[in-house]
Design goal:
Chain A has four helices and no strands. Chain A is mostly helical and about 120 residues long. Chain A has a single domain, classed as Helix Hairpins. Chain B has about 350 residues and is mainly alpha-helical. Chain B is globular and about 70 Å long. The relative contact order of chain B is 0.12. Classes of the chains: A mainly alpha (about 120), B mainly alpha (about 350).
Chain lengths: ~120, ~350
């Protein structure tokens, strides 16, 4: 059906933009990290959609030569990207924990206000 | 209507709803749980779109490890998100504009499942036929195109073949990125000897050995599960060339078994089974095993990561051997880094 042929692209744009809005507008650092995760899965969705092929099977070779397969390349890129995204999320969380322990808050504006205060005291 | 597309549309609508709900939720605990649901939905979507390995990774890493990690981080950060004051009109305008530009840009992309899409025609058929790359580069004239020179059916899972062989460099550096993330965690979250009173921590009692489950049911049933998780992890590690799976998924599964053990019986008990120095060593050993396989190929007269050099008489078997070795390296690094990350985020004085 041609009308829904681009549905996955609409979905990935919506998911990415929800994530982007959270990154920009939310003050809470954990929310920003979750938004970043959403942004990443939006990109994953675009890649996997590019590998889909009508009537295809999963790209695990079978003996029947008539079988057609989905494109394995996006799968490889995204598989490793998922693991890397969790590793980077862990680094971000570690930074958030560090900020929580130094400032007592993970709200970005409160952290900025505290920085401002300590600067004024220092002057 | 194509059932694949129908299921895809339904699941994506659910996933978008879960994503929006996760971002609107003020309670961070609720947000993390909704993200877990979103991740599981994505795993089903990947499986529906024929990406079995991606689905497996998303289920184990995205829905499993990431959720555990976020929950542990929340115990130290706190689950309260201050309400109000963070809806900004400029951000909304920017996001809508970016979205419109992206929608305009994607409107020309091939439709869902188009067999004539450039992505399907350019290099994919050669990956699927397994007749490109290092093997044919180094093939000697007596190798027929479908004889010893290609993988034959030694690596039916083309995702693993592409991951470990054709794009072996990518995977090596991605393993290195994961290793660096583990190192970052070690450096960022050094044990703090004494905490300031306002810090929220899970170990109120001051001892890490108290971070364990007191429920007899949980400890008995969970304890029974651990060996099976480990066996499944090793199966996924060794089976990655034939079916979905491989080092990335297996590493997370093995790590999950040890994380479960430490949650049930306390970290001190886990450290008796799996000493800390061993985890730290395994982190670097995995990357070393991967790169070492590449160097071994050079020592045998081939290119870096050209596994067929390991055994010139049986290049197909040598390819399988090389992939097994690098997958083992990936598995080692991923498992030990996930364990390290969870341990560091969980915190504690030791």
């Amino acid at each position: 059906m041609t009308l829904l042929g681009l549905f996955n692209h609409w979905a990935f744009v919506i998911i990415m933009m929800v994530g982007l809005y959270a990154i920009i507008a939310r003050n809470n650092l954990v929310k920003k990290i979750l938004g970043l995760g959403l942004f990443q899965t939006g990109i994953f969705l675009m890649y996997i959609t590019l590998g889909v092929r009508d009537g295809a099977a999963a790209p695990i070779l079978q003996d029947d030569p008539a079988v057609i397969y989905a494109n394995p390349l996006p799968h490889v890129l995204i598989l490793t990207a998922i693991v890397v995204s969790v590793s980077t999320m862990a680094v971000a969380l570690a930074l958030a924990i560090g900020i929580r322990e130094s400032y007592g808050t993970v709200e970005a504006d409160e952290v900025a206000a505290l920085d401002q205060q300590s600067q004024e005291v220092g002057c | 209507m194509d059932p694949v597309l129908l299921l895809d549309v339904l699941l994506l609508i659910l996933a978008v709803l879960a994503a929006v709900a996760a971002m609107l939720q003020r309670d961070l605990l609720g947000s993390v749980m909704l993200m877990g649901i979103y991740s599981l939905l994505m795993a089903v979507i990947w499986a529906n779109l024929f990406a079995m390995d991606v689905s497996f990774t998303e289920a184990s890493v995205g829905a499993g490890a990431a959720t555990v990690l976020l929950l542990m981080a929340l115990t130290r950060i706190g689950t309260r998100e201050r309400s109000g004051g963070d809806h900004s009109l400029p951000a909304l305008v920017l996001v809508v504009l970016t979205g419109v530009v992206l929608l305009y840009g994607t409107s020309e992309l091939p439709r869902f499942g188009d067999p004539q899409a450039p992505a399907q025609l350019h290099i994919a058929p050669r990956y699927l036929a397994q007749d490109i790359g290092k093997v044919s580069d180094s093939a000697t004239p007596q190798d027929s195109p479908h004889g010893e020179g290609d993988f034959g059916h030694h690596v039916p899972n083309t995702v693993t073949a592409v991951l470990a062989s054709y794009r072996g460099y990518d995977t090596m550096f991605e393993t290195a990125v994961i290793f660096s993330a583990g190192m970052c965690l070690l450096l960022l979250l050094r044990p703090i000897p004494r905490r300031s009173p306002e810090t929220v921590t899970i170990d109120e009692s001051g001892s890490t050995s108290h971070q364990k489950s007191e429920s007899v049911v949980l400890r008995t049933i969970g304890g029974m599960l651990i060996p099976y998780i480990l066996v499944f992890g090793f199966y996924v590690q060794m089976h990655g060339e034939i079916g979905p799976g491989g080092g990335f998924q297996a590493g997370v599964l093995v790590a999950a078994a040890f994380i479960l053990h430490s949650l049930l019986f306390g970290r001190a008990a886990t450290d008796r089974w799996l000493p800390r120095w061993l985890v730290d060593l395994a982190m670097s050993l995995g990357v070393l095993l991967y790169a070492g396989t590449g160097v071994a190929c050079m020592a045998m007269g081939g290119h870096f990561l050209d596994y067929s050099a390991l055994d010139r008489v049986h290049p197909a078997e040598a390819e399988a051997l090389g992939m097994t070795l690098v997958e083992a390296g990936v598995g080692l690094t991923v498992a030990s880094v996930v364990l390290t990350i969870v341990r560091k985020v969980q915190g504690g004085t030791r």
